[in-house]
Amino acid sequence: MNVLIVEDEQHLADGLRFNLEAEGYDAEIAGDGEAALALLLDTKQEYDVVVLDVMLPGKDGFTVAAELRAAGNFVPVLMLTARGRAEDVLRGFESGADDYLPKPFELSVLLARLNALLRRRQWFDQKPASVVTTEKESGTPSADAVAQFTFNGRTIDLANLELHTPEQTIRLTLMEAELLRYLIHHEGKVVSRKAILEEVWNLAEDTDTRAIDNFIVRLRKYLEEDPAKPTHLLTVRGVGYRFVTSNSQ
Ligand code: CA
After folding, report:
1. C-alpha closest to that of 23 among 114, 99, 104
2. Which terminus of the chain has fewer Cβ atoms in its 10 Å neighbourhood, N or C?
3. Could you tell me the pLDDT band of residue 185, with boundaries at 50, 70 and 90?
4. What is the Å distance from ligand 1's center to 2 Cα?
5. If you measure from the C-alpha of residue 56 to the centroid of ligand 1, how many angstroms do you get, rounded to a whole number?
């Protein structure tokens, strides 16, 4: 497993690389955003996951993540944020990060988050290319068995991290796909923000649940005819969300 560490503070970057290598990872360091983008976009070097600090000289972590996604690079990104800066978390997710960790962090927590991202990555990578399309009429699908899910003219292709609408094909980030998979699995049922945080992000602690709302806003742009008047990804006031495939509202 090849990890790119993007961090300008040399002693932090070196310490992280030392510890990751001790755990059996290959790790490289980029000292600023431009160097990271050059490695990720301009070279053939493949990374399995990127640890991206928000605070960087020049291009910051948000810009790096946004430029990566805009360039069609969907490598899993774990963003390092300043503790207590909820707005950093929201901006991080908005810019395309898959997960975040406030600094300073315990190494064991970082490793757990990296492993969770890598496991998800592998889950998607291992999906077969030819898959069964599940229509709503065929009953409640088992999300683990479903790699494609079609409703209302849209196809969510979890194997290829794509969402096809009548107008376009949208590339999904890992966590967008993971959230969609969770919603499909719980189709028709109310799911709480807390459950989403715990079961999709594996976060039980002090996370700002607005991060979830931010993802829902993005998914609505993909799924809804009118994102301001959702008919599929419904808000359940005070609780969370409900995903329905029929136009029920
Ligand atoms: Ca830094």
Report:
1. 114
2. C
3. very high
4. 21
5. 5
Is residue 185 a part of any domain in this protein? yes
pLDDT digits (tens, 9 = 90+) for 132-170: 444 444 444 444 556 889 988 899 998 888 999 988 999
Given 72, 99, 125, the domain boundary residue is 125
Q: Which residues are within 8 A (CB) of 37 and not within 5 positions of it... i.e. 6 or more apart?
A: 59, 64, 67, 68
Q: Is 194 domain-assigned?
A: yes
Q: Measured in angstroms, how far is the CA atom of residue 32 from the centroid of ligand 1? A: 8
Residues 225, 172: Cα–Cα separation, whole Å: 18
- CA of 26 from ligand 1 middle (Å) equals 21
| Inside any domain, residue 164 | yes
- Provide the CATH number for the domain around residue 64: 3.40.50.2300
Measured in Å, residue 220 CA sits from the centre of ligand 1 at 33
